C-alpha cells in the first residue's frame, strides 16, 4: 500500500512537471509574439544610439540559415550561442539577439526568419544591417505568398535596406538569390561552387562520417579545409562564412581552423555513430520537401552496408502535395535499401517508390514513433546508415535517442513545444505527458 502511494505521488509529480514545462514554454512563446513590435522599436532606437557603430551581420534565406549563422560566428571568433542552435530567429527573438550580443562584440550576427508578407521590412528597419547574407530561396512558407517570386521579393527587403557602403553576400549558385544583386546599391560578394564566384569551393570529397574536405578559394588564396559538415548545402554555409570573414578583415589563417572545429548543427545532417555500430544521419529538425530531397541526395553518397531511410510526413509541401510525396518516394527508391515511413502519408510515398522500382518488401509503414523504434530495433545491423527526417512536430528525434539507449517514454504524437530539443526535454522519459498540442507557432524561414 505504501509502495502504491509512493508511485502515485511520483506520477503526480511528473504530471505537474509536464504541465509546468508546457505552460512556461507556451507563455514564453506568447510573450515573443505580443512583444515583437515593442522590441523592434527598442532595437531601432538602440541601433541608432548605443549600437550605431556596431557591425550587424544579418543572415536570411529559406534554408541553411542556422548553420550559416553558426559558421559566421565561428569564423569571426565569436562564441557558440545556444539561442542560434535553437532556431530563435523570428518575432521578438530577432531584436533580442541584438540586445543579447551588443555588449559582447562589435560584430553581431543575427539570423532572421519570416513566415508571412511584410515581416522582413520591419526587421530591416529595426536592425539597419551592415552586411546581409542570403543563403537560398525555396518553397518553405510558400502558402503565405502568391508565388516564389513574391517570397523572393519579401526576403530581398533586407538586402534593399543596405546602405551604399554595406555588403550583400549572395549565394551565386542560386538564381533567385543572385537576382537580389539588382535590388541594392551595396557592394556584392558572391560565394558557392561555380567557377566565377568571389569565394568558392572545389574538389568536394566526403570523409564519412567525419565531414567533407574541399579546397577553399578566397581573397586570392587557396587552402584545403576539412569541415565537420555533410552535404553540399551545408558546405555553402562554410563558404558564406569565409566570405563574411573576408569582408570583416579576417585572414584565412585564422578562419580555416575555426570552421574546421565547428560541429554540425543539431538535427541538420548530423552524423551520430551509435553503440550498436549503426550510424544515424540525423536530419530530424524539419522536413520541407526540398530539404528531404537534399538529405536523400547526401545519403546516396554515403558508404554503407545498407542505406535506410526513416521519413515522417512532409512539412508544408506546396500544392499539389501529391507531386512532392511522389518525388520523395522516387528518390528514396534510388538511394535506400530499406525504407520506413512514419505517419499518415505512406500511400503517397509508395506511389513514387514503386514507380522508381522499389519492391514492396523494402517499404514499411508505422503510425507512431514507438512503433518505429520497435521495428528498427529488430531490423538494423552494424554498418547500416540510417537517415531520420520528419516534421518538427513529429519529433522523430525520439527514435534516434531510443536507438542510442535513452529511455524514451514520451507518447506525444504532435508536439508544439518551442525552442526545445527532445535531447534536453524534461518530458522525454515520462509517459504521462498531456497529448494535446499548443497552437502552432508562426515560425520563421
Key features?
Protein-Tyrosine Phosphatase, Chain A; 18% strand; 14 strands; single chain; globular; 39% helix; six-stranded mixed sheet; 15 helices; 445 residues; UDP-N-acetylmuramoyl-L-alanine:D-glutamate ligase; alpha/beta; disordered N terminus; eight-stranded mixed sheet
What does this structure look like?
Helix 2 runs parallel beside helix 5 (93-101) and helix 9 packs antiparallel against helix 10. The chain is of the alpha/beta class and 445 residues long. The chain has helices spanning 2-34, 36-47, 65-75, 82-85, 93-101, 119-127, 148-160, 175-178, 232-247, 252-260, 289-300, 321-335, 346-355, 369-377, 397-403; strands at 55-60, 107-111, 131-134, 167-171, 187-192, 199-207, 211-218, 221-227, 270-273, 279-282, 306-311, 338-342, 363-366, 384-389. The protein is built from 15 helices and 14 strands. Helix 7 (148-160) links the parallel strand 3 (131-134) and strand 4. An eight-stranded mixed sheet has the order 2-1-3-4-5-6-7-8, sandwiched between helices. A six-stranded mixed sheet has the order 9-10-14-11-12-13, sandwiched between helices. It has two domains: 33-260, UDP-N-acetylmuramoyl-L-alanine:D-glutamate ligase (3-Layer(aba) Sandwich); 270-424, Alpha-Beta Complex (Protein-Tyrosine Phosphatase, Chain A).
Question: What is Rg?
Answer: 22 Å
Give start-end ranges of low-pLDDT stretches.
Answer: 1-12, 436-442
How far apart are the termini? 54 Å
Q: Rough shape?
A: globular
Taken as a percent bin, the fraction of beta residues is: 15-25%
CATH topology-level name of the largest domain: UDP-N-acetylmuramoyl-L-alanine:D-glutamate ligase
- SSE arrangement, N to C: HHEHHHEHEHEHEEEEHHEEHEHEHEHEH
Mean pLDDT: 92
Sheet/helix structural class: alpha/beta
Please, what is the CATH homologous superfamily of the largest domain?
Mur-like, catalytic domain
From the coordinates shown, what is the CATH architecture of the largest domain? 3-Layer(aba) Sandwich
Largest sheet: 8 strands, mixed
Classify the helix fraction into a percent range. 25-40%
The number of strands is 14
Major beta sheet, strand line-up: 2-1-3-4-5-6-7-8
CATH class of the largest domain: Alpha Beta
How many discrete domains?
2
Separate helix tally: 15
Amino acid at each position: 500500500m505504501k509502495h502504491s502511494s509512493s508511485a502515485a505521488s511520483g506520477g503526480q509529480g511528473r504530471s505537474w512537471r509536464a504541465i509546468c514545462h508546457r505552460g512556461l514554454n507556451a507563455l514564453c512563446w506568447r510573450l515573443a509574439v505580443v512583444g515583437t513590435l515593442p522590441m523592434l522599436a527598442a532595437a531601432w532606437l538602440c541601433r541608432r544610439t548605443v549600437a550605431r557603430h556596431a557591425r550587424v551581420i544579418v543572415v536570411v534565406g529559406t534554408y541553411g540559415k542556422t548553420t550559416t549563422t553558426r559558421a559566421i560566428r565561428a569564423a569571426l571568433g565569436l562564441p557558440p550561442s545556444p539561442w542560434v542552435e535553437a532556431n530563435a530567429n523570428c518575432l521578438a527573438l530577432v531584436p533580442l539577439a541584438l540586445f543579447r550580443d551588443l555588449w559582447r562584440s562589435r560584430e553581431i550576427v543575427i539570423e532572421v526568419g519570416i513566415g508571412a508578407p511584410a515581416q522582413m521590412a520591419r526587421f530591416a528597419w529595426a536592425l539597419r544591417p551592415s552586411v546581409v547574407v542570403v543563403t537560398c530561396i525555396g518553397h518553405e512558407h510558400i502558402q503565405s505568398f502568391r508565388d516564389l517570386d513574391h517570397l523572393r521579393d519579401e526576403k530581398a527587403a533586407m538586402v534593399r535596406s543596405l546602405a551604399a557602403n554595406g555588403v550583400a553576400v549572395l549565394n551565386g549558385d542560386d538564381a533567385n538569390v543572385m537576382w537580389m544583386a539588382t535590388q541594392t546599391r551595396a557592394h556584392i560578394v558572391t560565394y558557392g561552387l561555380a567557377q566565377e564566384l568571389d569565394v568558392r569551393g572545389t574538389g568536394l570529397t566526403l570523409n564519412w562520417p567525419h565531414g567533407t574536405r574541399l579546397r577553399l578559394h578566397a581573397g586570392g588564396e587557396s587552402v584545403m579545409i576539412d569541415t565537420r559538415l555533410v552535404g553540399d548545402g551545408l558546405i555553402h554555409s562554410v563558404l558564406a562564412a569565409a566570405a563574411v570573414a573576408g569582408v570583416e578583415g579576417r585572414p584565412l589563417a585564422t578562419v580555416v581552423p575555426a570552421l574546421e572545429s565547428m560541429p554540425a548543427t543539431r538535427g541538420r545532417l548530423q552524423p551520430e555513430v551509435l553503440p550498436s555500430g549503426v550510424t544515424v544521419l540525423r536530419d530530424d529538425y524539419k522536413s520541407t520537401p526540398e530539404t528531404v530531397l537534399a538529405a536523400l541526395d547526401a545519403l546516396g553518397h554515403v558508404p554503407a552496408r545498407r542505406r535506410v531511410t526513416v521519413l515522417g510526413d512532409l512539412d508544408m509541401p506546396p500544392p499539389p502535395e501529391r507531386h512532392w510525396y511522389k518525388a520523395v518516394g522516387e528518390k528514396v527508391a534510388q538511394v535506400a535499401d530499406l525504407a520506413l515511413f512514419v505517419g499518415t502519408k505512406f500511400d503517397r510515398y509508395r506511389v513514387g517508390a514503386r514507380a522508381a522500382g522499389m519492391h514492396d518488401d523494402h517499404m514499411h509503414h508505422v503510425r507512431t514513433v514507438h512503433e518505429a523504434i520497435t521495428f528498427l530495433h529488430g531490423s538494423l545491423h552494424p554498418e547500416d546508415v540510417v537517415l531520420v527526417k520528419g516534421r518538427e512536430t513529429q519529433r522523430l528525434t525520439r527514435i534516434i535517442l531510443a536507438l542510442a539507449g535513452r529511455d524514451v517514454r514520451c507518447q506525444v504524437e504532435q508536439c508544439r513545444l518551442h525552442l526545445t530539443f527532445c535531447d534536453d526535454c524534461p518530458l522525454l522519459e515520462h509517459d504521462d505527458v498531456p497529448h494535446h498540442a499548443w497552437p502552432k507557432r508562426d515560425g520563421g524561414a
